[in-house]
Amino acid sequence: MFFDFGAGEIIGLAVLAMILIGPDKLPTFAVEAAKFIKRIREMATNATNDLKENLGPGFEDLKPTDLNPKTFIQKQLANVLDDEKPKSVASTTSKIDPDLL
Question: Which range marks the domain in which residue 14 is found?
Fold first, then answer.
């Protein structure tokens, strides 16, 4: 599962939800929670798409995980290590669009 919950934890959370919310309000609460999560996902997708549009060319394949500082540093280090490997002159290509500089 996503948060690595086992069957015991899920059953415990369900019992806790029934006690706190009540069995009569639990179905409506679950529907509202699902709608809220869907709305948050749509907002995140829209924000990512707006960011891609505003950053311009070269960022079409941007993913939200690329914005994580740890992932960003790992990606940059991998690029630097790849650049240090000897390459033939014919196989090198420009990674930066000169118009953006």
Answer: 7-85
